[in-house]
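pasting input
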Amino acid sequence: MILRDPVHGLVAFDGADARVVPALLDTREFQRLRDVRALGVASMAFPGAEHSRFTHGIGAARVMARLLARVEPLAAELGVPLSPQDHDDAMAAALLHDLGHGPLSHLFEEVFPGMPTHEAWSSAAILDPDSGVHRVLASRDAGMPARVERLVHGIHPIPLLARAVSGTLDVDRCDYLLRDSHMTGARYGLFDLDWLLRALAVERTAAGARLAVDGAKGLPAIEGYFLARLFMYQQVYFHKTTRAAEAVLRGVFRRVADLAGEGRGPSVMPPTLARLARGEALSSVEYLRLDDTVLWSAVSAWCDDPDPVLASLARRCRARALFKTAPLDGVDSAYDDEIADAMRACVRAAGFDDRYHASLDVVEVVPFESASTDDEALRVLHAHRAPEPIERASFVLSRLAGTSLVRRHLIFPAEARDAVTKLVASRRDGA
Amino acid sequence: MILRDPVHGLVAFDGADARVVPALLDTREFQRLRDVRALGVASMAFPGAEHSRFTHGIGAARVMARLLARVEPLAAELGVPLSPQDHDDAMAAALLHDLGHGPLSHLFEEVFPGMPTHEAWSSAAILDPDSGVHRVLASRDAGMPARVERLVHGIHPIPLLARAVSGTLDVDRCDYLLRDSHMTGARYGLFDLDWLLRALAVERTAAGARLAVDGAKGLPAIEGYFLARLFMYQQVYFHKTTRAAEAVLRGVFRRVADLAGEGRGPSVMPPTLARLARGEALSSVEYLRLDDTVLWSAVSAWCDDPDPVLASLARRCRARALFKTAPLDGVDSAYDDEIADAMRACVRAAGFDDRYHASLDVVEVVPFESASTDDEALRVLHAHRAPEPIERASFVLSRLAGTSLVRRHLIFPAEARDAVTKLVASRRDGA
Amino acid sequence: MILRDPVHGLVAFDGADARVVPALLDTREFQRLRDVRALGVASMAFPGAEHSRFTHGIGAARVMARLLARVEPLAAELGVPLSPQDHDDAMAAALLHDLGHGPLSHLFEEVFPGMPTHEAWSSAAILDPDSGVHRVLASRDAGMPARVERLVHGIHPIPLLARAVSGTLDVDRCDYLLRDSHMTGARYGLFDLDWLLRALAVERTAAGARLAVDGAKGLPAIEGYFLARLFMYQQVYFHKTTRAAEAVLRGVFRRVADLAGEGRGPSVMPPTLARLARGEALSSVEYLRLDDTVLWSAVSAWCDDPDPVLASLARRCRARALFKTAPLDGVDSAYDDEIADAMRACVRAAGFDDRYHASLDVVEVVPFESASTDDEALRVLHAHRAPEPIERASFVLSRLAGTSLVRRHLIFPAEARDAVTKLVASRRDGA
Amino acid sequence: MILRDPVHGLVAFDGADARVVPALLDTREFQRLRDVRALGVASMAFPGAEHSRFTHGIGAARVMARLLARVEPLAAELGVPLSPQDHDDAMAAALLHDLGHGPLSHLFEEVFPGMPTHEAWSSAAILDPDSGVHRVLASRDAGMPARVERLVHGIHPIPLLARAVSGTLDVDRCDYLLRDSHMTGARYGLFDLDWLLRALAVERTAAGARLAVDGAKGLPAIEGYFLARLFMYQQVYFHKTTRAAEAVLRGVFRRVADLAGEGRGPSVMPPTLARLARGEALSSVEYLRLDDTVLWSAVSAWCDDPDPVLASLARRCRARALFKTAPLDGVDSAYDDEIADAMRACVRAAGFDDRYHASLDVVEVVPFESASTDDEALRVLHAHRAPEPIERASFVLSRLAGTSLVRRHLIFPAEARDAVTKLVASRRDGA
C-alpha cells in the first residue's frame, strides 16, 4: 500500500506494516475522520490549516512504522524483543488514536453536560462489535480490540509501546507538530524527524524495552522536538484569532444548548445533536455520525434562525466577524476575575448578552513535562557514563524544565473594544 | 494584511494590494469557499488533497500581486502603463475567479438539467447587489463589479490583464498547479514560480501591454510550467481512483435526481438541492448556501435511505468502497461504444443497475494549447532577433505542440471485475 | 556510519552497506576528491556550484544502497538473487566511479596530447596495489579490485548491476542531477527520487536480474528524471557563462602547454603538470596528486608570469573577466566553419591571439537515448499486457526519442563584441 | 543582476541594490573568496560544508537588500530616513564583511606571531588604493572606502546600519546560519528569514533609526533565530570531529612555523607563507594571494616532506586520519590543566610529540548576549505598552539570557585512546 503525503512524502505500508493498516483505513469509522479537521477553527487564523484527522492518523501510523523499524532490532539485541502481535497492536493504535474525536475540537462537547470524552468514544468505537474497526481487529485475533483500546490510551505492559503511542515523545505529537506546522505555514514545528528517529535508543527494564535517547548524537533532535512543540503552542494553538474563533463557536453551541434546554429551538437541528441535547445515551455508531460537515451545515442553517442571538452568532462564524481579544500581559493575574467581571459589564453595555459574547481565556502549556514516574522519564544513554534524565543532559531543556507558559486574554465583541482596552490599560498601570 | 500559507509562505497584501483584498476576504461569499474543496474527491486517491478553493483564491491573488509587481514597471517603461484601477480589478478578479464554484467539482451539477454553470454563478454573485462581494466592489467605484465580472472570465481591453486572469499562463493555473502538487504530495507540479515571474516580459500592442517571455532567461521556467501541468493531469487529475470516486458520487446524485424526479425521495434532502431538483430558479445568495458540508452531510444521511440503490451508493462513498477501473490502452478507440455496452451487460449480470454503476470514462488534455488568436499567443522576446512564438523557441514545447493526451477507462463495481478484465483483454488481443 | 548531506539528508551506511563504504571513504584517493569540484568552472555562472566529487561519490553510493534495498527482494523473488559479493561490488563501484577524475573537468587534459582518460586513471587507481583503495578492496577478496574496476565502467555479467552503475538510468546520474540542481539553485533537476526508486521493477533474463519500470505507478517518476536531465543540460551544463569560463581556462592550459613545449616557461609549474607536459608516464599515485588546489594555485601564480599572454589569461580567470558569447541560433550550421574563421579574424583585429582567445563551441545532448542493445533498453512492465519499451509507453518520452538538442556559440573577448555581433547578424539575415 | 543560490533561490540585485554590488563582485579580491571555504575543515565532519565565503558574502548582501527594503520605509515614516549613500554603504559592507578572511579559518594565523587579524586585513584591502575593491568604492565617491571600512566593523553613526552589519541580529549571521545549516545538512539553523524580516521594526533615536522588533508578530521569528544559532554551535561549530580536524591542521602549521623558525624547512613553501614565517610585513594585495588552494596544495606537498613529524601530520589531514576526542563532561573544570598535563604524558608515552599532537580544547558560546550598551539592545515594540528588552518579552530568551554553553575536550592520537579514556574516567569518578 503506497500513498503520497504532503508531510512525509511517499508513505508505504509494506510487509508487517501492511497487516492491519490497509484494512483499518477502509472502515467507515476511520474514513469519517476525513471530515474532522485536525485544528478545528484554527484555519480562521491560518487558512492553510484545513487538514483532517484522517491524514494525521495515517501520518501517526507512518511515524510508528519508522519508529518500530528503528527500535525493534535494538530491543531484540537487548533480549527484550517485540512480537509480531506487539507490532500490529502498535500500528493499529497509532492509526486509531483519534478515532472517537468529535467535530470542531470538542467545542460543542463542552456545552452538553454529561458528554463522554473523545477518549471514551474512541474506546467505545474500538470495542463495539458493530464497528468496522472492531471487525477488522477481531478478525486478526479475538483479544486485539481490547489490547488496542488500552494501548490507544497509553496503557501497555511494555513501556516502549505505551510511551510511543502516548508519552512525552510519541508518534501522535511527532506527526501533528510536523503536519500542523507545515499546513499552517508556521514552520516552527519542523524538527528533524529523520534524525530524531535515528536518535532513539532502547533500555532494557524488567517490564521490557523502554525508549531512550542515544547520547552520542541524539540530543539536538530531541531538543528540537520540544522547542518545536513550545513554538507551536505560542504561535498556533494559542493564537488570539484561533481563541477568538473558538469563543464565537462556543457561544453558538451554548445558545443552541440553552434553546434546546428550554424547548425553544433551534429551527434546524441535526438528529444526533438533538439527542445529545436531550441527554440521551448514544451508541458509538450513532455518535460517529457527527462530523464537521454535520455541524458546519447546521451553523449555516442557523444563520437564518428565528432566534436573533443564535442567528447573529452563526453569521459571525460564517463571515469571519470574530470577537476581539485583549492580552492581559503586564496585568497581575490576581485581578483576573475582577477584570473579567468588568469586561462583562462593558459587553452588556454594548448591547450583548455576556453569557455568549464574553470570556476570560486562560491557556497554559508546560514546555517540558518532568516525568512523574520512572517509566515516563526520557533518559539519555552515554558511552562511558551512567544514563541521565534528558532534562539534565540537555542545556536547553534544563532551562525549560519546571517552567510553564501561560497566555491570558479577554475576548469580547468589537463593539466593546474601546471600553475594554481602557479597562485593561487602567489595570496595567495600576498593577 | 499578513497570512501564512503552506505553498507561498509569508503572504502579505500591502500597499496597493491591500486596497480590495482584505475587505473581499471577509465577505460571506468568499468565506464560503472554505467549505468547497479544490480537488473534490481526489482526496480518495491523494489523502492530503484536502485544501479548499478559499486558500487557492488567496494564492491566486498572491501570484497576481507578484505578477503585477513584475510587469507594471515594464509596461510603464513601454508607455502602456496599468492604472491603479486596473491593478485593483486584477487583484479582485484573481481572488474571486472561483467564487461561484459549486461543491464537489460540478458532480451534482451534471445531473440537474438546466443548471447554470459555475462561471454563471460567479457572475451572478459579483453582480448581485445583495452580495457582500458586490457591496465591497461597488463601494470603491460603481463600475467595478461589472469590470471584475468580465475580467473573471478573461475579458478585458488590456491583453495582459485578460490573459493573466485566464490564459495559457495565468495566476489561477500557477497557484493550483503548485498547490495541488504540494497537497497531493505528487510534487511534479512544482515549477519554479520565482523564476517564472522573473521571466515575464511585456510587449506593447495597440490595445496596451501584453504578456511575453524574456528570451534571455525565461524559457526553462515557462517550459517547466507546461510540463508540470501535463504531469499533474497524468498523475492526479486523471488518476484512476479519482475517476472511480467521481463515478460513484455521480451515481449518488443521479439516483437522487431520479428519485426526486419521480417524487419518491430521498428521505433527507437539503432545501437548496430540493429546489434545484424541482428545477426552480435560485438567486446567487440562495445557490451559494450549497457547499461541501451540505452535500457530504446529505450523503451521510443517505447511507440510511430506504432506497437500497441510493443507500448502497452513499455507503460506498463513506467507506471508500469505490468502483474499479480498467484502462483501454491498447484497445482501438473505435470500439469504445461497443466495449462500453458489453461492460454494461457485465455489470447488470453482476446484479447492478448500470445507469448508476457503470461508465466509460474518457478524458483529454492538450499539453500546450496553440494560440487561436494573436492576443493569446505567448511570444518570446530576443535581444538581437525578432520575437517568436514560444512553441517555436522551445525545444520541448515544439515537440508537444499539437499533441493531445487521452485516457480511457471502463468503470464498474468490483463484482464485475473478472468479466470486464476478460472483455478488455479479448478486445486488446483482437485489436 | 551516519552522515548528513544537503541533498539526501541523513545518510546512513548500515549493515551490508557498511561492509566496504567506510573503509573506502578514508583512503587518500577518495579523500582527494574533496578537492575536485564536480562542476568545474560552472560556479562562475552558478556561484553555489562549489560541491566536490567527494560528496557526489557518497551520494551515488547512497542512491545505490537505496536502489539495492528496492531491487534485491524483487530479484530474489524472481529466482535471480544478488549475492553479498554483488552487493559489495555495487556499493564500491558506485562510490568510486569518479575516482580518477582530473581537476577542472578535463580542461587541462585536452591540451596535453596522449593523456589517459579519467576512466583509465580510475582503473589504474583501483588496480594499483599501492593505492589505499586497492588495499581495502583486496582485503575483502582478491578478485574484488578487478571486478569493481570493470563495474565502474558498466561491465558486469548481471545486467542490473552493470546498468545501475552506468546506464540510461544510473545512480551516478540520479545523484548528480539532484546535487547539481540543488547546488546551482537551478531546481529543474529535482525529480522525485523516492518515487523513482519505488518505480523500479526487475525482469528475469538469462544473464540474471535486469532493471525495469513498474507500469502501474512508475512512469511519471522516470519521465521526470529524463526531463530533469534535459533541463540541466539546457540550463546549467550548456550555460553560456560556463562555456565562456571553460574557454578562458582552456586558453590558459593551451598557453602553458605551448610554453612548456617550447621550453619557455611558465615560471611556476606544479611538478606533476611539468611531467605531463614533458609527456612522461605517471603512476596513478603520482597522477592523483593533481587536484583543483594544485591547478588553481598555479593559475594564481601565473597571473604574475612574465609571459603576457599567460598572465592576462590567468588574470581573466581570477577576476572573472570572461570571454563573451554569441549564440548561433537562426544561423545555418553549414556556415559554422566559415563564420568561425571570420570571428577569428575579428579577434585578431582586436589585438588577441585567436589560438587562445577564440572558439566555436558546439555542444549536444540526446534527451532520451534509444537503447542500442536489448540489455540497455528500459522496459515498462504491465499487469495484463506484455512489457514495452519506455519510449513507447511514455507520452512525453515518445515525443523526445530520437531528438537531439544542439547549442552553438562563438566565444571571444569583449573587445571583439561589436564586430562579432555584426558578423552573426549578417549571417542570420542572410540565412 | 540575477543569480541563483541554493539558500536564497533567485537572488536579484536590481535598482539601488545594483549600484555597487555587481562591480564589487567582479574584483579580484572578492573573487578570491571563492577559494576560502566558509567552514574550514568542518567538511571533515559534514561533507556537504564545502561552500565558500564568496557565496556567503553574496548571501549577506542579499539579506541586507531585503532588510533595507523592509526598514527604509519605516525609518522614513519616523522622520529618520536612510540616504542613498547609506544604502550603498550598507550593501557594500554586507558584501565585503569577510574580505580579508584568511584561508582555513584562521588556523595558520594562530601560529605566526604578530599576524594582523582578518579584520585588519579587511580594512587594509578596502583602504589600499591598489585594490580593485577600493577602486570601485572610490569611483562612486572619495569618502566611500573609509566609510565602508568602518561599517564593516560595525561602526556607523546610524545605529540601525551599524547593528545590521555587525550586531546581535545581523545580516552576516542571518546568512551563515541558514547557509551552514543547509550545507552541512544539520537543518537546525533553518529559522524563518521571511518572517524575521517582516518582524523588524524601527525606533527613532537621537542618532537616527535603530532596529527593533514588532511585538505583535515578531517574537517567534527572533527567538527562532537565536535558538538556531545555539543549535549550530552545539551541533556543527563545536562538533568533535571539526575540533579534531582543526587540532591536526594546527599541528601542521605549528610544525611548519617551528621548522621555518629553525631554518630547517619545510621543503616546499608557498612564497607568501614563507614571508609570514619570516615575520615580514605584507601588503594586503600580497596577503590576499593566500587562499585555501595555496595552503591545501602545500599540505599535499608536505605529505612527502623529509621531516617525519610534518609528513605524518600532513598525511593525517589528507587521508582524514584525525585525532580522537574525549569530552570532559562530568569532570570538574578546576582539574582541566592537571588532566591536560596527564594527557600530554599519555601522548608522549604513545610516541608522539605532544606539542603537535595533544590539546585541551575549550570552546564557549553565549546563546543570548545581553546588550552592553543601549544601542545594542534589541527592544520589542508593543501596541499599547512601553517597549521592553527582548530578553524580558520572550519566554525562551528570558531563560537563556545570562547563560553560557561550554564544551571541553581532550584531543590526542588514537594510539593514546585507552590511556586517555581511563584517565578521564578516573577523574570523573573522583570528581
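fyi The mean pLDDT of chain B is 93.
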